[in-house]
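Exercise 7b. Backbone tokens:
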């Protein structure tokens, strides 16, 4: 019997046709859409006079452009309002389920899919958003696509894709108490670089990965794209199954006996070969922050910004540091900050709010810091209040906003002003990502909470 990786098992099970010398035709189980990358796709369908082939396989939500305050009022920005209204109309016209603002299931697309039970092991999943890799945490092949491909999937439930190479990243051992999933993935990217996994689909394995919750695994897979990977996935196990069973118990999608048995087969065969193997020791990982303008420029919170290498990238490296107002050899611990953002499809789940609350409980927010505290979905928002976390936030001086992508990207009102430093739990620290001229420092919810309390870059180990 041919030994297969988990990736190949799923890919082969969804292979409709292989084009000689060309891409594969791949069947897609689940298609998520939002207001930004779908309008042109629907317009093209209308121009061609065709409908959506399997509307029950598509789920829509408004997330990127929506405000996180006063969601009961019309969206102020005309462009944003038009995009959201257009998505709602397109979903009505083509029979697609849509969760708009204030719907109890609304939220960031990569948060609501898993929490509602739509994301399942063994699936192929796409969305017009690069962080679709999040869903790989369930043992699924999930990746972002462009608008023309959104149209392709709407029209045929299939997509043309070249099969990527396979990489396995193994993280062995146990992590320190202040080290989270966000620190693990920032460490991996810092070691491999922002382009180190280009052309690969990554499977994450090892004791440190297996010990993560589903929320943590989603954080890991979410940022796979930040090292150039096509996507990332983790083999489903008892942690996965319990998560899905809890969703079922809370009124989510039912799990059939056949599904349970199938999910148990979703693992890489012993002896299966990967195109590349990389191994790390979890004991080497510390709480991490970024210091540049890509997630690969990361170091321990108490580390020192490294000198530029001799690999021909010196100019771009120094340009990145100049944008951030930093220099090689600087220590950032103790550096003043202006904003803290807790949220996004990377760290906007209930576990992230629990972690943040564990640091701020009994303390006060620095008066020098503006905090954007944004749950990733209406369900997360409800959990925050049901668990009494809102009282911890309020007593510490924080205001909880309404769900949305918020300050992850500058497509809504939650922008970071030019020149200001934001410690952010999101996934990208590109120039202007959070607003023109903004300076983003990526970190975990624990680190972000410590920074919010002190008003400066702080090691969360001090609070634990």
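Sequence design result:
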């Amino acid at each position: 019997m041919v030994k297969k990786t988990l990736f190949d098992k799923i890919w082969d099970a969804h292979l409709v046709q292989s084009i000689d010398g060309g891409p594969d035709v791949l069947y897609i189980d689940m298609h998520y859409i939002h207001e930004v990358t779908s309008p042109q796709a629907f317009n093209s369908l209308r121009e061609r006079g065709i409908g959506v082939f399997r509307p029950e396989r598509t789920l829509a939500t408004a997330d990127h452009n929506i405000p996180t305050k006063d969601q009961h009022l019309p969206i102020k920005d005309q462009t944003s309002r038009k995009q959201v209204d257009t998505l709602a109309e397109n979903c009505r016209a083509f029979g697609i389920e849509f969760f708009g603002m204030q719907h109890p299931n609304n939220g960031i697309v990569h948060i609501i899919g898993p929490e509602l039970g739509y994301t399942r092991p063994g699936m192929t999943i796409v969305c017009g958003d690069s962080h679709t890799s999040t869903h790989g945490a369930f043992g699924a092949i999930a990746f972002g696509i462009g608008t023309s491909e959104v149209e392709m999937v709407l029209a045929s439930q299939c997509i043309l894709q070249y099969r990527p190479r396979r990489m396995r990243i193994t993280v062995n051992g146990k992590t320190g108490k202040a080290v989270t999933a966000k620190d693990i993935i920032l460490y991996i990217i810092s070691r491999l670089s922002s382009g180190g996994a280009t052309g690969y689909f990554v499977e994450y394995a090892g004791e440190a990965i297996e010990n993560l919750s589903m929320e943590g695994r989603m954080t890991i897979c979410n940022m796979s794209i930040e090292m150039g990977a096509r996507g990332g996935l983790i083999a489903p196990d008892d942690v996965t199954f319990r998560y899905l069973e809890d969703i079922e118990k809370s009124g989510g999608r039912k799990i059939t006996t056949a599904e349970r048995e199938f999910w148990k087969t979703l693992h890489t065969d012993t002896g299966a070969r990967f195109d590349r193997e990389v191994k790390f020791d979890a004991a080497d990982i510390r709480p991490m922050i970024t210091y540049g303008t890509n997630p690969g420029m990361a170091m321990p919170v108490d580390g020192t910004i490294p000198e530029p290498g001799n690999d021909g990238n010196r100019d771009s490296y120094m340009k990145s540091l100049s944008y951030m107002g930093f220099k090689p050899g600087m220590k950032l611990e103790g550096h003043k900050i202006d904003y803290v953002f807790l949220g996004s499809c990377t760290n906007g789940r209930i576990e992230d709010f629990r972690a943040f609350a564990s640091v701020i409980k009994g303390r006060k927010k620095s008066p020098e810091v503006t905090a954007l505290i944004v749950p990733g979905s209406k369900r997360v928002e409800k959990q925050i209040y049901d668990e009494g976390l809102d009282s911890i936030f309020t007593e510490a001086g924080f205001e909880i906003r309404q769900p949305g992508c918020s300050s992850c990207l500058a497509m809504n009102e939650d922008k970071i002003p030019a020149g200001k430093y934001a410690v952010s739990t999101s996934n990208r620290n590109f120039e202007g990502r959070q607003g023109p001229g903004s300076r983003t420092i990526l970190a975990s919810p624990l680190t972000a909470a410590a920074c919010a309390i002190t008003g400066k870059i702080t090691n969360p180990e001090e609070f634990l």
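Instructor comment: The CA atoms of residues 1 and 269 lie 10 Å apart. The chain has a mean pLDDT of 97.
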